[in-house]
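Project outcomes to date are best conveyed with an example. Our students and postdoctoral researchers have been running inverse folding experiments weekly, and each run begins with a structure described purely in C-alpha coordinates. The record below, which covers 406 residues, was selected by the lab manager from last quarter's runs and is presented without edits.
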Protein backbone atom coordinates (compact mmCIF):
# COMPACT_ATOMS: atom_id res chain seq x y z
CA UNK A 1 0.00 0.00 0.00
CA UNK A 2 1.16 3.52 -0.84
CA UNK A 3 0.29 5.93 1.98
CA UNK A 4 0.62 9.71 1.92
CA UNK A 5 0.79 11.36 5.35
CA UNK A 6 -0.06 15.06 5.25
CA UNK A 7 1.74 17.30 7.76
CA UNK A 8 5.16 18.27 9.00
CA UNK A 9 5.37 17.69 12.77
CA UNK A 10 6.22 15.11 15.38
CA UNK A 11 2.73 13.61 15.09
CA UNK A 12 3.26 12.99 11.37
CA UNK A 13 6.71 11.50 12.05
CA UNK A 14 5.11 9.06 14.51
CA UNK A 15 2.30 8.25 12.05
CA UNK A 16 4.81 7.60 9.28
CA UNK A 17 6.89 5.34 11.54
CA UNK A 18 3.84 3.25 12.49
CA UNK A 19 2.43 3.07 8.96
CA UNK A 20 5.80 2.16 7.40
CA UNK A 21 5.77 -1.20 9.20
CA UNK A 22 3.49 -2.51 6.44
CA UNK A 23 3.23 0.27 3.82
CA UNK A 24 5.34 2.52 1.62
CA UNK A 25 4.99 6.00 3.12
CA UNK A 26 5.63 9.52 1.89
CA UNK A 27 5.11 12.60 4.07
CA UNK A 28 4.15 15.97 2.62
CA UNK A 29 5.48 18.52 3.17
CA UNK A 30 7.29 16.73 5.99
CA UNK A 31 10.57 18.10 7.33
CA UNK A 32 14.27 17.23 6.96
CA UNK A 33 14.10 14.96 10.03
CA UNK A 34 11.28 12.73 8.71
CA UNK A 35 12.32 9.99 6.24
CA UNK A 36 10.29 10.03 3.02
CA UNK A 37 9.46 13.74 3.16
CA UNK A 38 8.38 15.27 -0.15
CA UNK A 39 7.90 19.07 -0.01
CA UNK A 40 4.92 19.35 -2.33
CA UNK A 41 1.12 19.51 -2.23
CA UNK A 42 -0.74 16.25 -1.39
CA UNK A 43 -2.86 16.65 -4.54
CA UNK A 44 0.33 16.16 -6.56
CA UNK A 45 1.10 12.75 -5.02
CA UNK A 46 -0.61 9.48 -5.95
CA UNK A 47 -1.43 7.19 -3.03
CA UNK A 48 -3.78 4.37 -2.04
CA UNK A 49 -4.53 6.14 1.25
CA UNK A 50 -4.14 9.72 2.46
CA UNK A 51 -3.80 10.31 6.23
CA UNK A 52 -4.22 13.97 7.16
CA UNK A 53 -2.43 14.93 10.37
CA UNK A 54 -3.03 18.61 11.28
CA UNK A 55 -6.33 20.33 11.97
CA UNK A 56 -5.89 23.31 9.62
CA UNK A 57 -6.07 21.40 6.29
CA UNK A 58 -9.00 19.38 7.67
CA UNK A 59 -10.93 22.52 8.61
CA UNK A 60 -10.07 23.99 5.20
CA UNK A 61 -11.58 20.97 3.41
CA UNK A 62 -8.56 19.02 2.09
CA UNK A 63 -10.21 15.65 2.82
CA UNK A 64 -13.26 16.56 0.74
CA UNK A 65 -11.16 17.76 -2.18
CA UNK A 66 -9.18 14.50 -2.22
CA UNK A 67 -12.34 12.39 -1.93
CA UNK A 68 -13.88 14.30 -4.85
CA UNK A 69 -11.02 12.87 -6.95
CA UNK A 70 -11.85 9.33 -5.81
CA UNK A 71 -9.14 9.06 -3.17
CA UNK A 72 -9.38 7.04 0.05
CA UNK A 73 -8.88 9.51 2.91
CA UNK A 74 -8.50 9.12 6.66
CA UNK A 75 -9.75 12.41 8.04
CA UNK A 76 -13.12 14.16 8.25
CA UNK A 77 -14.48 16.59 5.69
CA UNK A 78 -14.82 20.28 6.47
CA UNK A 79 -18.33 19.68 7.86
CA UNK A 80 -17.12 17.24 10.52
CA UNK A 81 -13.94 19.22 11.15
CA UNK A 82 -16.09 22.07 12.52
CA UNK A 83 -15.99 20.15 15.81
CA UNK A 84 -12.51 21.59 16.23
CA UNK A 85 -12.82 24.60 13.95
CA UNK A 86 -15.58 26.14 16.09
CA UNK A 87 -15.79 25.46 19.81
CA UNK A 88 -19.19 27.13 19.93
CA UNK A 89 -20.53 24.71 17.29
CA UNK A 90 -18.92 21.78 19.10
CA UNK A 91 -20.78 22.76 22.28
CA UNK A 92 -24.01 22.92 20.27
CA UNK A 93 -23.42 19.37 19.02
CA UNK A 94 -22.70 18.16 22.56
CA UNK A 95 -25.95 19.69 23.79
CA UNK A 96 -27.94 18.12 20.95
CA UNK A 97 -26.37 14.74 21.73
CA UNK A 98 -27.21 15.12 25.43
CA UNK A 99 -23.60 14.80 26.56
CA UNK A 100 -22.19 16.21 29.82
CA UNK A 101 -19.84 19.17 29.54
CA UNK A 102 -19.03 22.36 31.44
CA UNK A 103 -21.63 25.09 31.81
CA UNK A 104 -20.80 27.60 29.09
CA UNK A 105 -21.86 30.44 26.82
CA UNK A 106 -20.49 31.85 23.55
CA UNK A 107 -19.96 35.59 22.95
CA UNK A 108 -19.12 37.62 19.85
CA UNK A 109 -17.20 40.88 19.37
CA UNK A 110 -20.20 43.05 20.32
CA UNK A 111 -20.91 41.10 23.53
CA UNK A 112 -18.01 42.22 25.74
CA UNK A 113 -20.13 43.47 28.62
CA UNK A 114 -22.42 40.42 28.51
CA UNK A 115 -19.35 38.17 28.54
CA UNK A 116 -17.96 39.97 31.60
CA UNK A 117 -21.34 39.75 33.34
CA UNK A 118 -21.36 35.97 32.68
CA UNK A 119 -17.84 35.63 34.09
CA UNK A 120 -19.05 37.25 37.30
CA UNK A 121 -21.68 34.48 37.73
CA UNK A 122 -19.08 31.68 37.68
CA UNK A 123 -17.83 30.13 40.93
CA UNK A 124 -14.18 31.07 40.72
CA UNK A 125 -12.23 29.04 38.14
CA UNK A 126 -12.61 30.74 34.77
CA UNK A 127 -12.00 29.20 31.33
CA UNK A 128 -11.89 31.42 28.24
CA UNK A 129 -11.43 29.76 24.83
CA UNK A 130 -11.07 31.11 21.33
CA UNK A 131 -13.83 29.79 19.11
CA UNK A 132 -11.46 29.19 16.20
CA UNK A 133 -8.14 27.42 15.80
CA UNK A 134 -5.24 28.71 17.90
CA UNK A 135 -2.66 25.87 17.77
CA UNK A 136 -3.59 24.74 21.28
CA UNK A 137 -2.75 28.12 22.81
CA UNK A 138 -6.14 29.85 22.78
CA UNK A 139 -7.32 28.68 26.21
CA UNK A 140 -6.94 30.67 29.41
CA UNK A 141 -7.61 28.88 32.72
CA UNK A 142 -7.35 31.21 35.70
CA UNK A 143 -8.64 31.86 39.21
CA UNK A 144 -8.32 35.61 38.64
CA UNK A 145 -11.49 37.35 37.50
CA UNK A 146 -9.45 40.39 36.45
CA UNK A 147 -7.19 38.22 34.27
CA UNK A 148 -10.22 36.51 32.70
CA UNK A 149 -11.86 39.87 31.93
CA UNK A 150 -8.67 41.22 30.36
CA UNK A 151 -8.36 38.06 28.24
CA UNK A 152 -11.95 38.36 27.02
CA UNK A 153 -11.37 41.98 26.01
CA UNK A 154 -8.16 41.13 24.13
CA UNK A 155 -9.69 38.17 22.29
CA UNK A 156 -12.98 39.79 21.31
CA UNK A 157 -11.15 42.88 20.06
CA UNK A 158 -9.05 40.68 17.78
CA UNK A 159 -5.79 41.68 19.48
CA UNK A 160 -5.19 38.10 20.64
CA UNK A 161 -5.48 35.32 18.02
CA UNK A 162 -7.04 37.56 15.38
CA UNK A 163 -10.32 36.36 13.89
CA UNK A 164 -10.05 33.02 15.73
CA UNK A 165 -10.67 34.89 19.00
CA UNK A 166 -13.41 37.25 17.85
CA UNK A 167 -15.86 34.73 19.27
CA UNK A 168 -15.08 33.18 22.65
CA UNK A 169 -16.55 30.35 24.65
CA UNK A 170 -16.54 30.98 28.41
CA UNK A 171 -16.86 27.93 30.66
CA UNK A 172 -17.01 27.13 34.32
CA UNK A 173 -13.84 25.44 35.51
CA UNK A 174 -14.02 21.72 36.26
CA UNK A 175 -11.80 19.58 38.46
CA UNK A 176 -10.45 16.08 38.08
CA UNK A 177 -7.85 14.17 36.05
CA UNK A 178 -7.85 14.69 32.29
CA UNK A 179 -7.79 11.81 29.80
CA UNK A 180 -7.21 11.87 26.06
CA UNK A 181 -9.31 9.23 24.30
CA UNK A 182 -8.65 8.86 20.58
CA UNK A 183 -11.35 6.95 18.71
CA UNK A 184 -11.29 5.62 15.16
CA UNK A 185 -14.56 6.48 13.38
CA UNK A 186 -15.78 4.94 10.12
CA UNK A 187 -18.96 7.01 9.94
CA UNK A 188 -20.94 4.63 12.15
CA UNK A 189 -18.66 3.13 14.81
CA UNK A 190 -16.32 4.73 17.34
CA UNK A 191 -13.48 2.38 18.34
CA UNK A 192 -11.14 3.61 21.08
CA UNK A 193 -7.38 3.45 20.93
CA UNK A 194 -5.22 3.17 24.06
CA UNK A 195 -5.74 5.96 26.59
CA UNK A 196 -3.22 8.75 27.10
CA UNK A 197 -2.72 11.82 29.24
CA UNK A 198 -0.94 14.96 28.10
CA UNK A 199 0.62 17.96 29.86
CA UNK A 200 -0.36 21.31 28.37
CA UNK A 201 1.36 23.90 30.57
CA UNK A 202 4.90 24.98 29.77
CA UNK A 203 6.34 24.58 33.27
CA UNK A 204 6.85 21.85 35.86
CA UNK A 205 3.94 21.42 38.22
CA UNK A 206 1.52 22.62 35.51
CA UNK A 207 2.65 26.24 35.74
CA UNK A 208 2.86 28.92 33.12
CA UNK A 209 0.90 29.38 29.88
CA UNK A 210 -0.80 26.68 27.85
CA UNK A 211 1.08 25.14 24.94
CA UNK A 212 0.31 22.64 22.22
CA UNK A 213 1.49 19.97 24.69
CA UNK A 214 4.78 19.35 26.54
CA UNK A 215 4.57 15.58 27.04
CA UNK A 216 2.30 12.60 27.49
CA UNK A 217 2.12 9.02 28.66
CA UNK A 218 0.10 5.90 27.83
CA UNK A 219 -1.77 4.00 29.14
CA UNK A 220 -3.60 5.93 31.88
CA UNK A 221 -3.98 3.54 34.86
CA UNK A 222 -7.59 4.60 35.51
CA UNK A 223 -8.62 3.98 31.89
CA UNK A 224 -7.92 0.41 30.81
CA UNK A 225 -9.29 -1.12 27.60
CA UNK A 226 -12.68 -1.91 29.14
CA UNK A 227 -13.07 1.59 30.56
CA UNK A 228 -11.99 3.05 27.23
CA UNK A 229 -14.78 1.10 25.52
CA UNK A 230 -17.28 2.34 28.09
CA UNK A 231 -16.21 5.97 27.68
CA UNK A 232 -16.31 5.69 23.89
CA UNK A 233 -19.83 4.22 23.97
CA UNK A 234 -21.06 6.83 26.46
CA UNK A 235 -19.36 10.00 25.18
CA UNK A 236 -18.13 9.55 21.61
CA UNK A 237 -20.70 7.28 19.92
CA UNK A 238 -23.58 9.71 20.66
CA UNK A 239 -21.58 12.50 19.00
CA UNK A 240 -21.05 10.34 15.93
CA UNK A 241 -24.79 9.59 15.89
CA UNK A 242 -25.61 13.31 16.11
CA UNK A 243 -23.24 14.05 13.24
CA UNK A 244 -24.94 11.38 11.11
CA UNK A 245 -28.31 12.92 11.99
CA UNK A 246 -26.98 16.16 10.52
CA UNK A 247 -25.84 14.39 7.35
CA UNK A 248 -22.15 14.32 8.27
CA UNK A 249 -20.23 11.13 7.44
CA UNK A 250 -17.29 11.36 9.85
CA UNK A 251 -14.33 9.14 8.89
CA UNK A 252 -11.09 9.63 10.73
CA UNK A 253 -10.01 9.98 14.33
CA UNK A 254 -12.12 11.81 16.90
CA UNK A 255 -10.04 12.85 19.88
CA UNK A 256 -12.14 13.35 23.00
CA UNK A 257 -10.55 15.43 25.73
CA UNK A 258 -12.30 14.21 28.88
CA UNK A 259 -12.26 15.23 32.52
CA UNK A 260 -13.06 12.62 35.16
CA UNK A 261 -14.96 14.90 37.54
CA UNK A 262 -16.50 13.93 40.91
CA UNK A 263 -19.85 13.98 39.06
CA UNK A 264 -18.61 11.58 36.38
CA UNK A 265 -16.73 11.98 33.10
CA UNK A 266 -17.43 15.11 31.05
CA UNK A 267 -16.32 16.26 27.60
CA UNK A 268 -13.81 19.12 27.64
CA UNK A 269 -13.29 19.34 23.89
CA UNK A 270 -13.08 17.43 20.65
CA UNK A 271 -10.18 17.48 18.22
CA UNK A 272 -10.63 16.06 14.74
CA UNK A 273 -7.15 14.59 14.32
CA UNK A 274 -4.55 12.60 16.20
CA UNK A 275 -3.34 14.55 19.22
CA UNK A 276 0.18 15.86 19.41
CA UNK A 277 1.99 14.66 21.56
CA UNK A 278 -0.51 11.84 22.39
CA UNK A 279 0.17 10.21 19.01
CA UNK A 280 3.80 9.79 19.99
CA UNK A 281 2.82 7.52 22.92
CA UNK A 282 -0.22 5.74 21.43
CA UNK A 283 1.12 4.82 17.98
CA UNK A 284 4.39 3.19 19.17
CA UNK A 285 2.27 0.84 21.33
CA UNK A 286 -0.13 -0.10 18.50
CA UNK A 287 0.61 -3.61 17.26
CA UNK A 288 -0.42 -5.06 13.90
CA UNK A 289 -1.13 -3.47 10.53
CA UNK A 290 -1.89 0.21 11.22
CA UNK A 291 -2.23 1.05 7.52
CA UNK A 292 -4.88 -1.63 6.93
CA UNK A 293 -6.93 -0.46 9.91
CA UNK A 294 -6.85 3.21 8.85
CA UNK A 295 -7.74 2.23 5.27
CA UNK A 296 -10.73 0.20 6.48
CA UNK A 297 -11.81 3.14 8.60
CA UNK A 298 -11.53 5.50 5.62
CA UNK A 299 -13.59 3.08 3.52
CA UNK A 300 -16.39 3.01 6.11
CA UNK A 301 -15.84 -0.64 7.02
CA UNK A 302 -13.85 -0.75 10.25
CA UNK A 303 -14.14 -4.27 11.66
CA UNK A 304 -10.79 -5.06 13.24
CA UNK A 305 -10.17 -3.93 16.82
CA UNK A 306 -6.77 -2.26 17.26
CA UNK A 307 -4.45 -4.01 19.71
CA UNK A 308 -1.71 -2.56 21.88
CA UNK A 309 1.45 -3.84 23.47
CA UNK A 310 1.46 -4.29 27.23
CA UNK A 311 4.42 -1.91 27.57
CA UNK A 312 4.05 1.74 28.51
CA UNK A 313 5.16 4.84 26.64
CA UNK A 314 6.24 8.31 27.81
CA UNK A 315 7.09 11.22 25.53
CA UNK A 316 8.84 14.48 26.43
CA UNK A 317 8.73 17.57 24.23
CA UNK A 318 11.95 19.49 23.70
CA UNK A 319 11.11 23.12 22.97
CA UNK A 320 13.00 26.30 22.18
CA UNK A 321 13.77 29.23 24.41
CA UNK A 322 10.87 31.68 24.38
CA UNK A 323 8.19 29.11 23.58
CA UNK A 324 5.20 29.51 23.55
CA UNK A 325 5.24 33.31 23.26
CA UNK A 326 8.28 34.01 21.06
CA UNK A 327 10.24 30.88 20.07
CA UNK A 328 13.89 31.35 19.22
CA UNK A 329 14.94 29.49 16.05
CA UNK A 330 18.03 28.65 14.01
CA UNK A 331 20.07 26.84 16.69
CA UNK A 332 21.97 23.68 15.72
CA UNK A 333 20.57 20.54 17.40
CA UNK A 334 23.25 18.28 18.93
CA UNK A 335 23.01 14.72 20.21
CA UNK A 336 20.28 13.25 17.99
CA UNK A 337 22.24 10.11 17.16
CA UNK A 338 23.17 9.57 20.82
CA UNK A 339 19.51 9.95 21.83
CA UNK A 340 18.31 7.51 19.18
CA UNK A 341 20.85 4.96 20.44
CA UNK A 342 19.11 4.69 23.83
CA UNK A 343 17.41 1.31 24.08
CA UNK A 344 13.63 1.72 23.81
CA UNK A 345 13.82 5.39 22.77
CA UNK A 346 12.52 7.07 19.63
CA UNK A 347 13.06 10.67 18.51
CA UNK A 348 10.32 12.30 16.43
CA UNK A 349 11.20 15.51 14.59
CA UNK A 350 8.72 18.39 14.61
CA UNK A 351 9.91 21.97 14.05
CA UNK A 352 13.28 21.34 12.41
CA UNK A 353 15.01 22.65 9.29
CA UNK A 354 18.25 21.90 7.48
CA UNK A 355 21.10 24.24 8.35
CA UNK A 356 23.71 25.47 5.89
CA UNK A 357 26.02 22.56 6.76
CA UNK A 358 23.20 19.97 6.53
CA UNK A 359 22.77 19.62 10.28
CA UNK A 360 19.27 20.01 11.70
CA UNK A 361 18.41 23.33 13.33
CA UNK A 362 15.44 24.52 15.36
CA UNK A 363 12.63 26.00 13.26
CA UNK A 364 9.76 26.58 15.70
CA UNK A 365 8.58 26.16 19.27
CA UNK A 366 8.15 22.43 19.81
CA UNK A 367 11.21 20.97 18.10
CA UNK A 368 11.34 17.28 19.07
CA UNK A 369 9.27 14.71 20.93
CA UNK A 370 11.32 11.99 22.57
CA UNK A 371 9.48 8.76 23.40
CA UNK A 372 10.58 5.97 25.70
CA UNK A 373 9.01 2.50 25.78
CA UNK A 374 9.30 0.17 28.75
CA UNK A 375 7.51 -2.49 30.79
CA UNK A 376 6.23 0.18 33.21
CA UNK A 377 5.58 3.91 33.03
CA UNK A 378 8.60 4.45 35.28
CA UNK A 379 10.85 2.44 32.93
CA UNK A 380 9.52 4.26 29.87
CA UNK A 381 10.01 7.59 31.60
CA UNK A 382 13.61 6.76 32.49
CA UNK A 383 14.41 5.88 28.87
CA UNK A 384 12.74 9.03 27.52
CA UNK A 385 14.65 11.29 29.89
CA UNK A 386 17.92 9.42 29.24
CA UNK A 387 17.49 10.26 25.55
CA UNK A 388 16.41 13.86 26.26
CA UNK A 389 19.55 14.34 28.35
CA UNK A 390 21.71 13.61 25.29
CA UNK A 391 20.10 16.32 23.15
CA UNK A 392 21.07 19.97 23.37
CA UNK A 393 20.93 23.38 21.74
CA UNK A 394 21.17 26.87 23.29
CA UNK A 395 18.06 27.60 25.35
CA UNK A 396 16.45 24.16 24.98
CA UNK A 397 13.66 23.60 27.50
CA UNK A 398 11.77 20.47 28.55
CA UNK A 399 9.57 19.71 31.52
CA UNK A 400 11.20 17.47 34.11
CA UNK A 401 7.99 16.05 35.57
CA UNK A 402 6.25 14.27 32.67
CA UNK A 403 4.62 11.08 34.05
CA UNK A 404 6.32 11.60 37.42
CA UNK A 405 4.75 9.48 40.14
CA UNK A 406 2.38 7.62 37.79
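After processing, the design step wrote out the following sequence:
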Amino acid sequence: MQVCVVGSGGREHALAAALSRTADVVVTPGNPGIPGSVPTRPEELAADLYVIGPEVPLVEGLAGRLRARGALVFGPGADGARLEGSKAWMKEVLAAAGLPTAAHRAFGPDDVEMAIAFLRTLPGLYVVKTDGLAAGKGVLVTESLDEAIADVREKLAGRAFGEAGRTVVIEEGMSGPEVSLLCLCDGRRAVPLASAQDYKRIGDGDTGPNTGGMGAYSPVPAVDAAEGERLADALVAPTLHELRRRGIDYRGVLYAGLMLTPDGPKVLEYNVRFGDPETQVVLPRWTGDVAAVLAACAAGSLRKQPTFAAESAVTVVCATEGYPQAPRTGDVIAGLDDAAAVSGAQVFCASVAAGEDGRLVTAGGRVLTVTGLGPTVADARARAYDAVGRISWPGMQARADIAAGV
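The chain has a mean pLDDT of 96. The longest strand covers residues 251-261. The training component of this project remains on track.
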